[in-house]
Design goal:
mainly alpha; two-stranded antiparallel sheet; about 500 residues; about 60% helix
C-alpha cells in the first residue's frame, strides 16, 4: 500500500511538472511514443554478439567473468522471476526517459530557462541510437541511469548531507560493477565533494563528512565485487582483461623495431606495419598473437605480459599513442558515421529487419549455450520482428540521431559552463572560470567517460551513449545564470552611548 502511495505521488508530481511546461511534456511524450514503437516492432529485446550472451548466462548462473564485469547480470537476475526480455527492455526505456527528466530537473533547478532545459533533453529523448541501445541486453542504459541518479543526488543542493552522499556513492559503485569503464568515477565524485568542502571552508566538517561518506559508498560495491571475483579466481580484481585491451590499444601504432621489447615479449609483437592492421576493436579478436597465446589472453601471466608490453610501447612511442587517442576522439564528431571498428560491430547498433540468430553451439558461461540461456530466461523466441513497426523505427534511427558535428557543438556548449569569455563588451576578451551553477561536474564526467575507454581500449560508437546525457546536462546548465557573490556590506554604524560621548 505504501509503495502504491509513493508511485501515485511520483506520478502526480510528474504530471504537475509536465503541466507547468507543455514543451517538455510534448518532448517527453514523443520520446515515449518512439520507445513504444520500438517495443511493438521488436517484442523481447535486441542482442549484441558475445556480451549479451555473457550477461544472460551470468544472470542464470551468477559468476564474475574474466573479460568484463557482470554487475548488469545482477540486474537481469533480479528480473528473472518474470521471465521477460520485454520487461527488461521496457525498464531500460523507462531509464532513458528518466535520464531526460533528470537533465530537465537539474537544468531548471540551476535556473536555466524552460526552453533551453527542454532542448538539453532532446538528444536523449529522440536519438535513434539511444533508443536502440536501451532495447538491447547491454549495460549502457543501466550504467548511465545510475550515474545520472548519483549526479542528481549531489547537485540538487549545494550542501550534500552524508546520507545523500552515501546513496550517491553506492549508485556510483554499483555503476562501476555494471561497467568497468566507470572506474575513474570512483575518484571523480568524491573529489568533487572534497572540492566543495574546501570552497565552503576547511573547518566545514559536514562537507568533509559528505566527501568521505561518498568515497566509502563508492568503494563498498566495488570491493564486494572484487571479493566475489577473488572467491572464483583467486585474485582481487574486477576483471583480468586489462592487458588484453591495452595491447589492442597499442596495436594501432606499435612497432617492435622501435620498442625493442625483451625476449619474452617478442612473440606478442603485432605483425606487419601499423597501417596494415585493422582498428584495435577489431584486431584484438583476430590477431594470432593473442588469439593463440598458450593459456589464453586472460590468464594471470598473459594478462601481465600483454600489459607490460603495452606500457613499454606507450613509453617508447608516446606520440604514436597520443595520435591514436586523438584519432579516436576525432571520430566522435565526424559525419557521416564510419563503420568503425568494423562493419559487423556497427551493424548491431541498428534496428534490423530480420530476426537475429542466437548461437546454439557455444557457451559464454558454462552450463548452457547462448540460445539455451536466452530461451531459459525469456521463455519465448529470443528474437522477433513485427512489421510495419520495425521498419518505421529502423528508418527513424537512420535519420534522427546526434550527428557528429552536433555532438561537438553540445560538447563546446557544455564547456561554456566551465570556462567562458568575459569582457567582450569592453573589447578586452579574457577567459574566466565560470560560476554557472553546477556545470563543472557533468561536463568533466562526460569528458572523462569519453576519453578513458579510447585511451585504454579503442573508440566505439556505443561508448558515446553514456556520455551524451552528461554533455547535454552540461550544455543545459550553461544557460543557467551565473552565481554572483554578494557584494560586501559596509559595517553597521556604531550606536552612540553615554560611554562613547564622554
Amino acid at each position: 500500500m505504501l509503495a502504491g502511495i509513493r508511485r501515485a505521488a511520483l506520478t502526480r508530481r510528474l504530471g504537475e511538472l509536465i503541466a507547468r511546461d507543455p514543451l517538455f511534456g510534448g518532448a517527453l511524450a514523443v520520446g515515449t511514443a518512439l520507445r513504444l514503437l520500438a517495443m511493438a516492432g521488436y517484442p523481447g529485446a535486441l542482442w549484441f554478439a558475445g556480451d549479451s550472451y555473457l550477461y544472460v548466462g551470468a544472470a542464470l548462473r551468477p559468476r564474475p567473468d574474466l573479460s568484463k564485469t557482470t554487475g548488469y547480470s545482477l540486474f537481469l537476475r533480479a528480473l528473472l522471476p518474470f521471465h521477460s526480455f520485454t520487461l527488461v527492455a521496457g525498464l531500460q526505456h523507462l531509464m532513458g526517459l528518466g535520464i531526460a527528466v533528470v537533465i530537465y530537473l537539474l537544468a531548471r533547478r540551476a535556473g536555466a530557462p524552460k526552453r533551453w532545459a527542454t532542448v538539453a533533453t532532446l538528444p536523449v529523448l529522440l536519438d535513434g541510437f539511444e533508443i536502440e541501445d536501451e532495447h538491447m541486453i547491454m549495460a549502457e542504459a543501466l550504467f548511465t541511469f545510475l550515474v545520472m541518479l548519483a549526479m542528481l543526488a549531489i547537485l540538487w543542493r549545494y550542501r550534500t548531507s552524508w546520507l545523500i552522499a552515501l546513496i550517491a556513492g553506492l549508485l556510483v559503485g554499483y555503476a562501476v560493477d555494471v561497467r568497468a569503464e566507470g572506474l575513474p568515477l570512483l575518484i571523480l565524485f568524491p573529489a568533487f565533494l572534497a572540492y566543495r568542502a574546501i570552497r565552503q571552508g576547511w573547518k566545514n566538517w559536514r562537507g568533509w563528512l559528505a566527501a568521505v561518506t561518498l568515497a566509502a559508498g563508492c568503494a563498498a560495491p566495488v570491493l564486494a565485487y572484487a571479493a566475489w571475483f577473488h572467491s572464483w579466481n583467486g585474485q582481487y580484481a574486477l576483471t583480468r582483461s586489462d592487458g588484453f585491451f591495452l595491447w589492442g590499444r597499442v596495436s594501432s601504432f606499435a612497432e617492435c623495431s622501435v620498442i625493442k621489447p625483451p625476449a619474452d615479449e617478442l612473440s606478442i609483437c603485432p605483425s606487419g606495419s601499423p597501417s596494415s592492421r585493422t582498428p584495435p576493436g577489431d584486431y584484438i579478436w583476430h590477431a594470432p598473437q593473442v588469439r593463440d597465446i598458450p593459456g589464453g589472453a586472460v590468464s594471470v601471466a598473459n594478462d601481465r605480459l600483454l600489459r607490460d608490453f603495452a606500457i613499454r610501447a606507450v613509453g617508447a612511442q608516446p606520440f604514436g599513442y597520443a595520435k591514436s587517442v586523438l584519432t579516436g576522439l576525432a571520430l566522435t564528431v565526424v559525419w557521416p558515421r564510419r563503420d568503425y571498428p568494423d562493419r559487423g560491430t556497427v551493424s548491431y547498433y541498428y534496428f534490423r529487419l530480420r530476426p537475429q540468430t542466437i548461437p546454439d553451439n557455444h557457451s559464454w558461461i558454462p552450463g548452457g549455450t547462448a540460445y539455451q540461456d536466452a530461451v531459459r530466461y525469456g521463455h519465448a523466441s529470443p528474437s522477433t520482428v513485427v512489421e510495419p513497426f520495425a521498419a518505421l523505427i529502423s528508418v527513424y534511427e537512420h535519420l534522427v540521431y546526434t550527428y557528429g558535428p552536433l555532438f561537438g557543438i553540445i560538447l563546446l556548449t557544455g564547456l561554456g559552463g566551465v570556462v567562458r569569455i568575459e569582457g567582450l563588451r569592453e573589447r578586452r576578451p579574457r577567459l574566466a572560470w565560470s560560476r554557472r551553477a553546477g556545470s563543472m561536474m557533468p561536463w568533466v564526467t562526460g569528458v572523462v567517460l569519453l576519453v578513458s575507454p579510447i585511451a585504454v581500449a579503442d573508440f566505439d560508437y556505443r561508448y558515446l551513449l553514456p556520455v551524451l546525457p552528461l554533455t547535454c546536462l552540461a550544455a543545459g546548465l550553461a544557460f543557467a545564470p551565473a552565481r554572483v557573490r554578494p557584494a560586501p556590506q559596509p559595517p553597521a554604524p556604531r550606536r552612540m552611548t553615554s560611554s562613547t560621548m564622554t
